[in-house]
């Protein structure tokens, strides 16, 4: 069973609450759920929709199916009627929408709400009940959800919502077209508690698990969800959250806080990251551990503010003048984001480098069911730190940038001992004094770059999925994981020939492991959410191995399994 | 006890006769009189001749980017409230590149002392007009004279209701020591604009130019009188007042979460398992 419901409407119509309710109801019924939000950069109006997919199997992606549309306005009917799968229906209130189509299934959301709930505001619950009734779901799942949602408002509100939902439910069962065949297939529900989270929440939870104690940010879509999640937990989780005057200040604050001793996180999007580039180099030369999360959106400049793209990859790798080590990672799902952020903090502290986590709007805003995050197994590695006694014994002789075998110097935090801490964005000696001598420069530059080789060795191998003796490799990174995985399944249904090779550790790559992973295929197809195949270029420059085909998407929409299949057929070389 | 021996003065790359020497001596004496040891303080700066001061002093130091000293300094203080923080920079660093940060540092009012070495010229890049250069100042990029008026930081700061703002002169160490001590004792963001001759590049605003103009605010001057302070702060011509020009004593900024000086949250032990409760909020 694989069912997709679209809820469409104008901003401000409450489609998010219906969408969220459907996601949770599906999760309660035991399904795996994946939901995306497509919204325009405006406060009211426009066309926005929520696309919710239910499946018996775990899913990591949206697709192009569309079985039911809940249309809150006329535009939603027009926008989605041609996407509708055979046998699908559009649910709408005859008072809001009048359309001439056999696919329309009218449910008087508003009238039923007034009649059974006492107020039009209960229309969302009517819609929820109607969807469930059409699909043959169990009303108890909806009741349980409404109890969770409204219990703080009192039993009266809960009961009115339940009556409204039941009215919609019964209306749908009684009036549904005779030939309507779509149905939930009963699945065995697990009693294990599961989560419904989006990427932003998962990143926030991961940062808290990792012991983040300082966050500074300037609001920028689609990264603001991370900042707001952590800000809303600052008291219970002991995190200092500072809204900076601009992204320049945000990163510099993060760098100050990190040197003061706090694990620091700076979430932003591409435009903000552009402003942070100066600070990125400061973190590089001062060997400051800091985690920057760049939730990408289509650029350049303002681009498409509320949409998705994977076009900051080469920028993230190359940003800033000069040379210094950094680590770039790209998680692909909420659960992977949780562990990637923990790893980002540990690697930042271990190597004393800036770590860039590349997400995107698709990861940030997509909701997914997942098993609960395992906080107990989170390991913290703060890297080389001197304890107070060691630091006191060094006092003024402490050297922040001490030359060591592995290029990593023990840290102290200013004011936490009698050791004197000094560092600078100028080239410096071991003690952090400004220098210009050639030999001292070479010593410090090589000390820092030494870490790059070690990072390369520790770069994790890509994830592989698909047929064993495949001749086609679909090579991907970041949020396209789920789409590529399903594309591989679709290809292999016609014969086992394809495999996914998906990267989370993006930079620095280890050429040996990459060659081993991608070298033996007749076809290598790069799947990327950008126009210039940036990851393919990185692989080529690191390994000499090129791609035979490309599937690229840069219209601001997420890559789907169907999009991949359709575009592999076209194939072709890079036009730019 | 802290003595001058705790603050040995190292070799510098400053020009002989530079006003920076006077500021460094005043800082050393103020730190000794305040009883602050090098491991208790943090000297933060950006880029420029003034910003090199932390290099030539004892004490913890963070010398970052041009114009970006204040965001770093504020974060250090928020994370570790026990640090006594002094920030240094020139007029280019603080009033040009760092202008936006200064504006918001005044609003935020984190407890630190910001000392601007104001010599009305760019020294490190050799003599261009700075934001405080007066109209007509001839520099490398403005051979016909700068066509903008000079920025006067004091009325700007008063209009923002700054907690503490003073003006001093590098040629009068005792006055500067008193200003640094008073600024440091104020619990909030304190700005000291220190007039300082650049003996190499600024041939207009010389030691004599300042000496002829500066005068001390009288003992009965009331720095809490905002309107008076605003009037006084406009004087930057034939006469230039020195002293604490305005003091609103606005309460210092604290983090939104409780972060006690003797037990800052950043240094508390962390156990990831303690946060399992976060799962609950998203459970189905």
Quick recap of the structure?
The complex is a heterodimer of chains A (576) and B (284). Chain A is of the alpha/beta class.
Can you walk me through this structure?
- The complex is a heterodimer of chains A (576) and B (284).
- Chain A is 39% helix and 20% strand.
- Chain A is of the alpha/beta class.
- Chain A folds into 4 domains: 2-175, Pyruvate-ferredoxin oxidoreductase, PFOR, domain III (Pyruvate-ferredoxin Oxidoreductase, domain 3, 3-Layer(aba) Sandwich), CATH 3.40.920; 197-377, Rossmann fold (3-Layer(aba) Sandwich), CATH 3.40.50.970; 388-458, no CATH class; 463-570, Rossmann fold.
- In chain A, helix 4 crosses helix 6.
- In chain B, 54% of the residues are buried.
- The model of chain B has no long low-confidence stretch (mean pLDDT 96).
- The radius of gyration of chain B is 20 Å and the shape is globular.
- Chain B has helices at residues 19-34, 69-79, 91-97, 99-108, 153-159, 173-185, 207-213, 226-233, 277-281, and strands at 41-45, 60-63, 84-90, 112-118, 164-169, 189-195, 214-216, 240-247.
- Chain B contains 9 helices and 8 strands.
- At the A-B interface, helix 1, strand 7, helix 7, strand 8 and helix 9 of A face strand 2, helix 2, helix 4 and helix 9 of B.
SSE layout and pairing:
The complex is a heterodimer of chains A (576) and B (284).
Chain A: E1 2-11, H1 15-28, E2 32-38, E3 45-55, E4 68-71, H2 74-80, E5 89-92, E6 104-106, H3 109-117, H4 123-135, H5 139-150, H6 155-175, E7 194-198, H7 199-209, E8 212-217, H8 224-231, H9 234-237, E9 240-243, H10 247-260, E10 263-268, H11 270-285, E11 290-296, H12 313-318, E12 327-329, H13 334-351, E13 354-360, H14 361-365, E14 367-371, H15 388-394, E15 422-424, H16 438-458, E16 463-466, E17 472-477, H17 481-492, E18 498-503, E19 505-507, H18 511-518, E20 523-528, H19 534-543, E21 549-552, H20 561-570
Helix pairs in contact in A: 1-4, 1-5, 3-4, 3-6, 4-6, 5-6, 7-8, 7-13, 10-11, 17-20
Chain B: H1 19-34, E1 41-45, E2 60-63, H2 69-79, E3 84-90, H3 91-97, H4 99-108, E4 112-118, H5 153-159, E5 164-169, H6 173-185, E6 189-195, H7 207-213, E7 214-216, H8 226-233, E8 240-247, H9 277-281
Parallel strand pairs in B: 1-2, 1-3, 3-4, 4-6, 5-6, 7-8
Antiparallel strand pairs in B: 5-8
Helix pairs in contact in B: 1-6, 3-4, 5-8
């Amino acid at each position: 069973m694989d069912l997709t419901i679209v809820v469409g409407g104008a901003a401000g119509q409450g489609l998010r609450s219906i969408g969220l309710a459907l996601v949770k109801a599906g999760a309660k019924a035991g399904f795996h759920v994946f939901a995306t939000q497509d919204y325009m950069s405006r406060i009211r109006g426009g066309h926005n929709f929520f696309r919710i997919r239910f499946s018996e199997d775990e899913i990591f992606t949206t697709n192009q199916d569309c079985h039911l549309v809940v249309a809150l306005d006329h535009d939603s009917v027009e926008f989605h009627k041609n996407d509708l799968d055979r046998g699908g229906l559009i649910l709408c209130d005859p008072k809001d929408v009048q359309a001439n189509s056999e696919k329309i299934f009218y449910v008087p959301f508003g009238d039923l709400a007034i009649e059974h709930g006492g107020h039009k505001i209960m229309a969302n619950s009517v819609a929820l009940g109607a969807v469930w009734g059409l699909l043959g779901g169990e009303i108890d799942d909806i009741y349980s959800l409404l109890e969770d949602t409204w219990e703080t408002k009192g039993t009266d509100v809960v009961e009115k919502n339940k009556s409204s939902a039941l009215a919609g439910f019964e209306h749908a069962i009684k009036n549904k077209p005779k030939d309507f065949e779509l149905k939930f297939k009963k699945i065995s529900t697990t009693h294990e508690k599961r989560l419904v989270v989006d990427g932003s929440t998962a990143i926030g939870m991961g940062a808290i698990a990792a012991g983040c104690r300082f966050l500074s940010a300037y609001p920028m879509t689609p990264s603001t969800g991370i900042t707001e999640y952590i800000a809303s937990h600052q008291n219970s989780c002991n995190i200092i959250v500072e809204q900076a005057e601009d992204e320049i200040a945000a990163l510099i604050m993060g760098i100050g806080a990190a040197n003061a001793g706090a694990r620091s996180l700076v979430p932003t999007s591409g435009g903000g990251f552009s402003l942070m580039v100066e600070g990125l180099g400061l973190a590089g030369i001062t060997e400051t551990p800091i985690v920057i999360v760049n939730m990408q959106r289509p650029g350049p400049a303002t681009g498409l503010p509320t949409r998705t793209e994977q076009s900051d990859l080469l920028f993230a790798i190359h940003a800033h003048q000069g040379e210094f080590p950094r680590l770039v990672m790209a998680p692909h799902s909420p659960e992977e984001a949780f562990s990637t952020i923990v790893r980002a903090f540990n690697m930042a502290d271990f190597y004393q480098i800036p770590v860039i986590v590349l997400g995107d709007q698709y990861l940030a805003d997509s909701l997914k069911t997942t098993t609960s995050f395992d906080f107990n197994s989170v390991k913290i590695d703060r890297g080389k730190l001197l304890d107070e006694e060691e630091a006191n014994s060094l006092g003024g002789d402490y050297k922040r940038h001490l030359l060591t075998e592995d290029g990593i110097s023990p840290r102290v935090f200013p004011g936490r001992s009698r050791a004197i801490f000094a560092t600078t964005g100028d080239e410096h000696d071991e003690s952090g004094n400004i220098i210009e001598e050639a030999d001292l420069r070479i010593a410090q530059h090589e000390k820092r770059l030494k870490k790059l080789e070690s990072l390369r060795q520790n770069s994790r191998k890509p994830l592989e999925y698909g047929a064993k003796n495949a001749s086609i490799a679909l090579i991907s990174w970041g949020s396209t994981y789920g789409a590529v995985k399903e594309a591989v399944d679709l290809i292999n249904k016609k014969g086992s020939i394809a495999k996914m090779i998906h990267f989370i550790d993006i930079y620095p790559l280890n050429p040996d492991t990459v060659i081993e992973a991608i070298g033996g295929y007749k076809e290598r197809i790069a799947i990327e959410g950008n126009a210039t195949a940036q990851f393919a270029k990185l692989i080529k420059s690191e390994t000499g191995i090129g791609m035979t085909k490309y599937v690229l998407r840069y219209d601001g929409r997420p890559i789907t399994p169907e999009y991949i299949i359709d575009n592999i057929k076209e194939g072709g070389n890079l036009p730019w | 006890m802290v003595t001058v021996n705790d603050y040995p003065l190292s070799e510098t790359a400053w020009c002989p006769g530079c006003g920076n020497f006077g500021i460094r001596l005043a800082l050393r004496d103020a730190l000794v009189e305040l009883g602050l040891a090098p491991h208790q303080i943090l000297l933060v700066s950006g880029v420029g001749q003034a910003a090199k001061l932390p290099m030539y002093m004892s004490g913890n130091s963070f010398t970052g980017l041009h114009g970006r000293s204040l965001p770093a300094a504020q974060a250090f203080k928020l994370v570790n409230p026990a640090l006594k923080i002094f920030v240094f920079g020139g007029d280019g660093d603080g009033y040009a590149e760092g202008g936006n940060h200064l504006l918001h540092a005044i609003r935020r009012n984190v407890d630190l002392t910001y000392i601007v070495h104001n010599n009305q010229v760019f020294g490190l890049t050799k003599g261009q007009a700075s934001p405080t250069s007066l109209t007509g100042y001839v520099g490398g990029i403005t051979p016909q004279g700068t066509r903008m008026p000079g920025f006067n930081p004091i009325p700007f700061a008063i209009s923002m209701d700054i907690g503490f703002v003073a003006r001093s002169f590098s040629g009068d160490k005792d006055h500067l020591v008193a200003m640094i001590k008073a600024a440091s004792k104020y619990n909030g963001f304190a700005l000291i604009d220190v007039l300082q001759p650049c003996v190499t590049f600024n041939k207009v605003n010389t030691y004599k130019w300042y000496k002829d103009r500066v005068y001390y605010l009288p003992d009965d001057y009331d720095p809490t009188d905002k309107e008076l302070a605003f009037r006084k702060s406009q004087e930057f011509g034939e006469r230039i007042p020195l002293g604490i020009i305005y003091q609103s004593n606005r309460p210092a900024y604290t983090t939104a979460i409780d972060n006690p000086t003797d037990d800052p949250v950043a240094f508390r032990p962390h156990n990831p398992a303690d946060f399992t409760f976060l799962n609950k909020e998203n459970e189905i």
